[in-house]
Amino acid sequence: MLNRRSFLATASAAPSLHAQTRFALGASMLAGFAEADITPEIGMEQPGGYGKVFHRSVHDPCKARVAVFDDGRKAVALVGLDALIVPRALVLAARKRIQAQCGIPGDAVLINASHSHSSGPTGLVQPGEFDSSPELVRRLAYEKSSMADARYLKIVEDQIVAAVCRAHKERADRQCGVGLGHEDKAAYNRRFRMKNGRTFTHPGQGNPDIVKVAGPIDPQVGVIGAWDRAGWLAGCIVNYADHATASPGGISANWIYYMERAIRGMFGQQAVVVFIQGACGDVTQVDNLSPHLRPSGREDAEFVGGRVGAEATKVLLGMPRGSLAPVEARSRVLKIERRVPSREKVAEANRLVQMDPQKAGVTEWTFAKETLMLADLIRREPVADVEVQAIQVGPAVFVSNPAEYFVEFGLEIKAKSRFQFTFPAELSNGCVGYVPTEEALSESGGGYETRLTFYSNLVPDAGRHIAAEGIALTHQLTPGALPEPPRAKPFGGTPWTYGNVPAERK
Ligand SMILES: [Zn+2]
């Protein structure tokens, strides 16, 4: 709740130089972790659809989760927000305050939304956005669409700034590591080629018109860990590509909550678990090809979060520790045009929205509303600011953009990056809606993500340009060395004296 605004946890401090650790002490670097509460209030809007829904109960807290890495020369901050999206204006305001308060430059701060569909009102329509629009459009935007809450946005901004500055202030010598895991039972591509030659999103289990799945998933679980000198996990970052649509019921961080539980179950409550959402625009936890009844609610969230968390735990247990230097940041803002709806389409939309949604058809009516809101947006802002960013942590790089980005692009960025550990981060530093592949926007494409709406509207080649820019930014950086575990002592000449004895038969 909003009055519970204190920090839920911060990294354990006071490293002891004399404590025994399972790993011998090697190189280290400065790292700090913190988290802050951003749980919305009951009654606030629950964004995630094209209409209004309100929160009625709380399942678990939503948080801003922060990791700061500092190589002694530069610091970078990675923020994982339990939020559907993060608005650009909030990111710019938070970065300004972070720079002023703790000196981390704006382009070295990555703010990623987990895309939790059970979180607070950060979108989609922003407060005041349609104040100067014609009355009809203003009413459709404010009264019929999912809308951010100005007071909640301010709290989220304050909490991001506080948590980043706290993680920065409490940064301490940590042994850090990076590794990769694999989880392919918790994520499925949700788009399918159909017998009619087009592609549907979520065609439904058992649909006989399904020909085959239309795209891949990215099963990689990317993990960074940081341990204090006593061998306690201070915090970690997990990167995985899967819609946070496994809602346990009520306000929740979504499956990320169960991922955190799995990791903390092993390493303790002091560990801050930062989740950075990968490129999952066409990937969810729903297996449309399964013949079985799917789990729902809490069991669904447990399944996804538990599996990803367990895999991250295995990766953390096995990773060599040391320094993940250097840290570096690059960022560039692309100007990308929006797709413009035809005049006929706008006229038809104008006719449809005057009708009763039940008579017009709810889906048709909703898309008509979106068309009018988009036409209004294009009048005000025909070109979108699309920030592409690369944040390097030693041998790892996070490549971010503000799209709900198709997984094909995430895989392409991984394939073309020079970094062994490349972690795409969608819905970062702003939000420009779904950015599908050009194929998905062609005759053989189609489906939910390809509709032209107020939310999703960039030109068809946007995804390609965003990927190319992300890859180009990684090429400006040189990967750091992977920590190497300390070498075992050279063989002393004597094997274990109980172990080198001959067998005894009698
Ligand atoms: Zn989505």
Write up this protein.
- The chain is of the alpha+beta class.
- The chain has two domains: 9-14 and 22-328 and 384-475, no CATH class; 341-379, no CATH class.
- It is built from ten helices and 20 strands.
- The chain has helices at 88-102, 135-144, 150-169, 255-267, 297-318, 343-353, 357-360, 362-380, 407-416, 462-475, and strands spanning 9-10, 29-37, 63-70, 75-81, 109-113, 172-182, 188-189, 191-194, 199-201, 210-213, 220-227, 233-240, 272-277, 283-284, 327-337, 383-393, 396-400, 404-405, 421-425, 434-435.
- The strands form five sheets. Strands 1, 2, 3, 4, 5, 6, 11, 12 and 13 form a nine-stranded mixed sheet that branches. Strands 15-16-17-19 form a four-stranded mixed sheet, covered by helices on one side.
- A hairpin with a 2-residue loop joins β16 and β17.
- α4 packs across α5 (297-318) and α9 (407-416) runs parallel beside α10.
- The longest helix has 22 residues, at 297-318.
- The chain is globular.
- Zinc ion (ZN) binds at residues 115, 243, 404.
Give the topology.
Blueprint: E1 9-10, E2 29-37, E3 63-70, E4 75-81, H1 88-102, E5 109-113, H2 135-144, H3 150-169, E6 172-182, E7 188-189, E8 191-194, E9 199-201, E10 210-213, E11 220-227, E12 233-240, H4 255-267, E13 272-277, E14 283-284, H5 297-318, E15 327-337, H6 343-353, H7 357-360, H8 362-380, E16 383-393, E17 396-400, E18 404-405, H9 407-416, E19 421-425, E20 434-435, H10 462-475
Parallel strand pairs: 4-5, 12-13, 17-19, 18-20
Antiparallel strand pairs: 1-2, 2-3, 2-6, 3-4, 6-11, 7-14, 8-9, 8-10, 11-12, 15-16, 16-17
The structure holds zinc ion.
